[in-house]
Design a protein that fits this description.
Elements: H1 6-15, E1 23-26, E2 39-42, H2 48-55, H3 70-78, H4 87-94, H5 96-105, E3 113-116, H6 119-128, E4 137-141, E5 151-154, E6 170-174, E7 178-188, E8 194-196, E9 200-205, E10 208-214, H7 221-238, E11 242-251, E12 256-262, H8 272-275, H9 280-288, E13 302-309, H10 317-326, E14 331-334, E15 344-352, H11 355-370
Parallel strand pairs: 1-2
Antiparallel strand pairs: 3-6, 4-5, 4-6, 7-8, 7-9, 7-11, 9-10, 10-13, 11-12, 13-15, 14-15
Helix pairs in contact: 1-9, 3-4, 4-5, 10-11
């Protein structure tokens, strides 16, 4: 696995009972996954020769992020290395402009969009469709953004200058008037077997995923099936192998629009560790190794995941003891990261039959670990 973050850490954990031997390409020995994986290679994923040396002896190469240059992945494939997902699929998670163009060609519903050249072009985009309301407009760097980074909401041509200073292409999108965000997580194997997890509601705070509720409350069976079918269609048409997260906007009139794609385990699927028969991490491994996929069905009527962000307390141990004692059914997953304000350092999962209770338990634990509450 290329990348040493928490997604690699949790994927490695899922592979242990399957007997999968894991090699990791990590930036530093302090990275989340490097702390727990035995076979760690330190190196730069942007260097082709490093990737070639790392891949020797591996059955398959997969990723915990989308940033490996696709030309390097094509070179690995030419060397006979199995790369999953492959570069022709992964480019759609790397480049938002390419993703929007392809999904639109496939008839997949997306926000109105266009790659823009400068602030004047942003104003022209805003004025192109008066029915869409003009400004504000969402601007995104086509590559490299995540967790709210590389995204701006601008209300005028003057405000649109900042995104262009980085010197990379910028995508303009209409600011969708959505009622909530959803995510459809699916997994697809090389020979086309695919499974779909329940569609979830994803609550964002300051551009960062805060809480995930599985399944999405109040979503009709027909709407849920439509979102799952949409995600499965994207996986098939783009040739995705492994886990695919399709982040969605739900609008007031019941439509769903594709916001983002991620071709790896995803924050919106962390609930599956404790709330599904087979987790997203185990199914990602099964898919990239072309093993039969596991059951994606939920174990309980409701599961809630809440991210634990770093707060003012660098030592979470006392909070950890409190949460475990208060709620024996709580599942805590820590990433081995130094605690810094606003940094994702772990998550908690709760599950049960009463949604209000399950949400309160997850929220209390995440807030207590962060230090937001102390009782």
């Amino acid at each position: 696995m290329v990348g040493g973050g928490q997604l690699a850490r949790m994927t490695h954990e899922a592979g242990i009972p399957l007997g999968i031997r894991f090699r990791l390409l990590s930036d530093t020995p302090q990275d989340s996954a490097a702390q727990v994986v035995n076979d760690v290679v330190l190196g730069d994923y942007r260097d082709l020769e490093t990737l070639r040396a790392f891949s020797r002896g591996c059955d398959v190469i997969t990723f915990d992020h989308e940033h490996v240059p696709v030309e390097h992945l094509r070179a690995l494939e030419a060397d006979g290395v199995a790369v999953r997902p492959g570069p022709d699929a992964l480019v759609h998670a790397q480049d938002k402009g390419v993703m929007r163009e392809r999904l639109t060609a496939l008839g997949i519903p997306c926000p109105r969009h266009r790659v823009v050249a400068d602030p004047a072009d942003v104003r022209a985009f805003a004025e192109d469709d008066p029915g869409a309301g003009g400004f504000p407009v969402v601007l995104k760097t086509v590559r490299g953004g995540y967790d709210g980074k590389g995204v701006w909401v601008v209300s005028s041509e003057a405000e649109a200058a900042e995104p262009f200073r980085a010197g990379v292409p910028v995508l303009a999108e209409e600011k969708v008037a959505f009622t909530r965000e959803l995510a459809a997580n699916v997994v697809r194997s090389p020979h086309g077997q695919a499974v779909a997890y329940p569609v979830v509601e994803s609550v964002q705070v300051s551009g960062v995923c805060d809480t995930v509720i599985a399944p999405a409350p109040g979503l009709s069976p027909e709407a849920a099936a439509h979102a799952q079918h949409l995600a499965l269609t994207v996986a098939h048409e783009l040739g995705v192998v492994g886990h695919l997260a399709v982040e969605l906007f739900e609008t007031e009139d019941g439509r769903v629009l594709v916001n983002e794609l991620a071709m790896r385990p995803h924050n919106s699927g962390h609930w599956t560790q404790d709330g599904a028969v087979t987790s997203q991490f185990a199914n990602h491994l099964r898919a990239v190794l072309d093993l039969p996929l596991g059951d994606p069905r939920p174990r309980a009527p409701w599961t809630v995941m809440a991210n634990v962000l770093g707060g003012d307390y660098p030592d979470m141990y006392q909070g950890y003891l409190h949460c475990l004692a208060r709620d024996p059914g709580l599942r805590i997953h820590m990433y081995g990261k130094d605690v810094k304000p606003g940094r994702k350092v772990g998550h908690v999962n709760t599950y049960g039959t009463d949604l209000a209770d399950v949400r309160e338990r997850a929220r209390h634990a995440a807030d207590y670990l962060r230090g937001t509450i102390t009782e």
